Amino acid sequence: MDLRKTTISAINNCSDTSVLNHIYNDILKCNDILKNAYNNWIQQQTDEISNLHINSLMYEDLFDDMCMAKSSIMGKYLDTTYGSLKEDTYCLSLDAHYYKFIIAETNSDSETDIYERTIKINPRYVNDKNIILHEMIHAHEHILSLATPLLRETLILELYKQLLLKIKNLDQIIYNHANILHNSELSEIGGHHGLLFLFKSLDLDLRLNNELFTIFGYNYNKTFKELGLI
pTM for this structure? Predict the structure, then answer.
């Protein structure tokens, strides 16, 4: 199915004004607001914000799988027996979805607001690559969810298969991370950190030769060391 042609055809044939208003207000108008805010942010960037933004663009290569690059573990899903799709990693990038970086005091090291499309970094951590990558995972999770939940679920599967070959206690790590009481406490402290976040943070640690759970944070490296799992 050609989604673009089907959508345009449906809109052209729509005679219900309330439906068209809904499409405009909930999608197009919202997108315009985000785009305008993003453009203003670009024009008003300080040198410090500009450097942070440039660094994030360089780090995007580490999110090749979340951006559906053909060279990544997700590349095979662009070319199947049901048809082929062109690679367009930009459409799943932070810039394409109007994510803005802000340097400001925060209650924690950093935080991401998916509704305002902002990634806020505490001034103390503006040059901390691991902190920035932590928040970029949150943002890319949101972008994937907007694209299609199936992509998100498929990436979880592909990352699991890849990490299982590299981390011998992965299943036990998942079991401890997903413990209901433990995860509820983690959510209260730092928000949602599900399986995709867990797997992608470990993937980035391995790519960057970090100690495992460096990017995840929340003393997880200490926790899993005490459990004898890393």
Answer: 0.85
